[in-house]
UniProtKB/TrEMBL annotation:
PROSITE patterns: DIHYDROOROTASE_2. Zn(2+) 2 binds at residues 153, 180, 233. Residues 50-237 form the Dihydroorotase catalytic domain. This is Dihydroorotase. Pfam families: DHOase. It comes from Sinomonas atrocyanea. Substrate binds at residues 61-63, 93, 279, 310.
Length: 445
């Protein structure tokens, strides 16, 4: 048996703080220190680069099975690797919906076979995302995919009795319900944030209260049941206040913000460019300020991309006809650097918390979000914070061209991603999938 290749990451700034070498061997961080013995190792010069634990996304749409024209597990997990991610949670709104053990096992299998990142399937809360009866939560948890996160994302579990029962079930499974908080009656036909801009444009509005009323209800249900609740893509200042109140009362709630909600506002809808159409919608400048403050003080626990690739025919059309959603995996870390690090609101250690450690805890990914320390799994990302790059969707690995940052210059560039000791990304470009996984089960199909 041949030993797996060893890598010596030389002179990285761990969490943007102390500089050290990292020796990577057999899938783990075999040594941390200065002047480590590099014999037989491939040296990766990390002078000027920040090392963080591999990023974990709690909210990714990989579209497979069923919408392989929009994305596949393989293209999405390549995009994840390029963005610095070593684990992604794939949302359940595929076709068929991931509401059975069979579908979640299929998604996990495709992820392993692709070999670019850990793909953790999210199970649907209700059958077909219809909000009528609970899906087989226990069977998905006990399947080979070991699902711990359940979500009808794209749809809200709006029936309070079903939501209560879902929380009761996941409590027994050490799981979590990730809620897409959107009161459907208050948002029927909604096209954008309800406010001054929607009045001017005459587009039907999505009011903040439609999100806030569901979050308020759900934190009280979570308290009543004693269960874990995760709130997807928080978008309003009022939602932040409710979550802050709930945490102060000891309710077991976590919350997520997307990169785009940290920088973009509903003023962009004046362009009528559907690339800015997203759910929940882009809000106001005051909301953006509140979301940044909440992420910095920990009221919002994680950054989740809500990576939502669409074929161009669903985006290059009139605003009202266009699909909702934006890509995000390949720009997330840069946008967080822009919104949070360059504004002085967060340091790189805080970024590690919000983009790796906390999401891994929420998703029960015990192997991820671990410290950069000897003996830990070698999932890590090297980022060049001084780099500047212009986003070109055509050059990205995702099939989606719907990036709201297309043509913009962003700071910070992912130079390398190590997934289980293997560089999926080197020199800022895709390298190779993990050889222990990639193609390993190719004959099974
Ligand atoms: Zn959603």
């Amino acid at each position: 048996m041949t030993a797996s290749p060893r890598y010596l990451v030389r002179g990285a700034s761990l969490y943007g703080e102390t500089s050290a070498d990292l020796l990577i061997a057999d899938g783990v961080i075999a040594g941390v220190g200065s002047g480590l013995d590099a014999s037989g190792a491939t040296v990766v010069d990390a002078d000027g680069l920040v090392a963080l634990p591999g990023l974990v996304d709690v909210h990714t749409h990989l579209r497979e099975p069923g919408r392989e024209d929009a994305e596949t597990v393989e293209t999405g997990s390549k995009a994840a690797a390029l963005g610095g991610y070593t684990a992604v949670h794939a949302m359940a709104n595929s076709n068929p919906v991931a509401d059975t053990a069979g579908v979640v096992e299929q998604v996990a299998h495709l992820g392993r076979r692709a070999g670019w990142a850990d793909v953790r399937p999210v199970g649907a809360v209700t059958v077909g995302l219809k909000g009528e009866r609970l899906a087989e939560l226990g069977a998905m948890a006990e399947s080979a995919a070991a699902v711990r996160m359940f979500s009808d994302d794209g749809m809200c579990v709006h029936d309070p009795v079903l939501m209560r029962r879902a929380l009761e079930y996941v409590k027994a499974l050490d799981g979590v319900v990730a809620q897409h908080a959107q009161e459907p009656r208050l948002t029927a036909g909604a096209q954008m944030n309800e406010g001054a801009v929607s009045s001017v444009l005459g587009l039907p509005g999505w009011p903040a209260v439609a999100e806030e009323s569901i979050i308020a209800r759900d934190v009280l249900l979570a308290q009543h049941v004693g269960s874990r609740l995760h709130v997807c893509h928080v978008s309003t200042a009022g939602s932040v206040e409710i979550i802050r109140w709930a945490k102060a009362r000891g309710i077991d709630v976590t919350a997520e913000v997307t990169p785009h909600h940290l920088v973009l506002t509903d003023e962009l809808v004046r362009t009528y460019d559907p690339v800015y159409k997203v759910n929940p919608p882009l809000r106001t400048h005051d909301d953006v300020e509140a979301l940044r403050a909440a992420l910095a003080d920990g009221t919002i626990d994680v950054v989740g991309t809500d990576h939502a690739p669409h074929p161009s025919e669903h985006k290059e059309c009139e605003w009202v006809q266009a699909a909702m959603g934006m890509t995000g995996l390949e720009t997330a870390l840069s946008v967080v650097q822009l919104a949070m690090v360059e504004t002085g609101l967060m340091g790189w250690r805080d970024v590690a918390r919000a983009m790796s450690e906390a999401p891994a805890k929420i998703g029960r990914d015990s192997d991820h979000g671990r410290p950069l320390a000897e003996g830990e799994p070698a999932h890590l990302v090297l980022v060049d914070p001084a780099a500047r790059w212009t986003v070109d969707p055509a050059a990205q690995a995702t099939k989606g061209r719907n990036s709201p940052f297309a043509g913009r210059e962003l700071p910070g560039r992912v130079i390398a991603t190590f997934y289980a000791g293997h560089p999926t990304v080197l020199d800022g470009a895709l390298n190779a999938p993990h050889p222990a996984f990639a193609g390993a089960h190719a004959g099974e199909r």
